[in-house]
Specification:
Number of domains: 3
Largest sheet: 7 strands, antiparallel
Order of helices and strands: HHHEEHEEEEEEEEHEHHEEEE
Number of helices: 7
Distance between the termini: 41 Å
Radius of gyration: 40 Å
Oligomer: single chain
Structural class: alpha+beta
Shape: elongated
Bound molecules: zinc ion
Number of strands: 15
């Protein structure tokens, strides 16, 4: 089948559609920005010619991807002293199911509620390690003396005994246990997977060649109305290239070429990823960007995404 050029909507149609929509949804805002004091407000008073300051012909690429989110199966147990407890962050996420796309942090975390006391295995819970005193024998030290006994002054060697000042006659020395810092206690805790919601989400991806801050919003809005928007449908990502897109759009620029490349490479990456599943064809839409200014001088933009027949509009009015 030969490629058919898709016709982008004309500026007057876009503006008319925007007026009708805004009149339904934000009438007060419309009156405030376009009304004249003393005159009855009418939509006819809002002219495209006076409001639109500039237009830009761009393109948008859109597809949706299902993100499978599952909690990790990995878990482990760790042991440490009091000093180790204060060195790391513990988490308390009892029963809550966490949105993985918003979670910032590791996928498995030390759980506060799992901390339990265990006796230190190094000192058997005593807090100290006992060793023989090297200065004495069983707490007693001896020093040799010569004693002259009796009238004959017979020399006798005697050992004089006294208490050891190193161990205070205990015979043993107690050193603080290095493993538990003397507390006698260690702590065990579990490192468990963050309880991510195990549902899958359809995430819209939108690439716009227009310089806009609204890519995310436009993508989300487009997801709701995708059935009623017409574009160039691409079922094989290999066809997402300049050679195919340019004749279909009927116009082209450097930025469009750029998004064609990045959308194509993202799509292929996601397609290979086991946590993602592509859930829509790739759509390339004409995108007309209107730079507007109201009678009262407030600036806003209108975007039309789709063909002449079926397009949707987004604005930041
Ligand atoms: Zn210890
Ligand atoms: Zn001693």
């Amino acid at each position: 089948m030969p490629d058919v050029r898709i016709k982008s909507p004309n500026v007057d149609d876009i503006f008319e559609k925007w007026k009708q929509k805004t009149n339904r949804q934000k009438k007060k805002n419309l009156e405030k920005n376009f009304g004249t004091k003393g005159a009855v407000f009418s939509l006819d008073a809002i002219s495209a010619g006076e409001t639109i300051k500039d237009t830009q012909k761009e393109a948008a690429i859109y597809f949706t991807v299902e993100q499978k989110v599952e909690a990790s199966k990995e878990q482990k147990e760790e042991t440490g002293a009091i000093r180790d407890l204060s060195k790391q962050n513990f988490y308390s996420i009892k029963g809550a199911s966490v949105d993985k796309s918003k979670w910032q942090g590791p996928e498995i975390v030390p759980v506060f509620e799992s901390i339990t006391k265990v006796p230190c295995d190094s000192c058997k819970g005593k807090g100290y390690i006992e060793t023989q005193c090297k200065e004495c024998s069983k707490g007693i030290k001896t020093t040799p003396m010569t004693v002259l006994v009796g009238a004959e002054q017979k020399k006798e060697k005697k050992d004089f005994q006294y208490n050891c000042p190193t161990c205070f006659k205990a015979g043993t020395i107690k050193d603080k246990c290095k493993k538990c810092d003397g507390y006698g206690t260690l702590y065990k805790w579990k490192v468990l997977p963050v309880p991510f919601k195990s549902l899958s989400q359809h995430v819209p991806k939108l690439y716009s060649s227009a310089k806009t801050k609204f890519e995310k919003q436009i993508g989300e809005e487009l997801q709701k109305v995708i059935e009623s928007v017409e574009g160039i449908k691409i079922t094989n990502v290999k066809e997402l290239n300049d050679k195919k897109i340019e004749p279909n759009l009927g116009y082209y620029n450097k930025n469009i070429s750029k998004i064609v490349k990045s959308a194509s490479s993202d799509y292929q990456k996601l397609d290979k990823d086991k946590d993602h599943r592509m859930t829509s064809p790739i759509w390339v839409f004409p995108m007309i960007q209107l730079f507007c200014e109201s009678k009262k001088g407030s600036k806003f933009e209108i975007y039309a995404v789709g063909s002449e027949q079926k397009f949707f509009i987004y604005d930041n009015f």
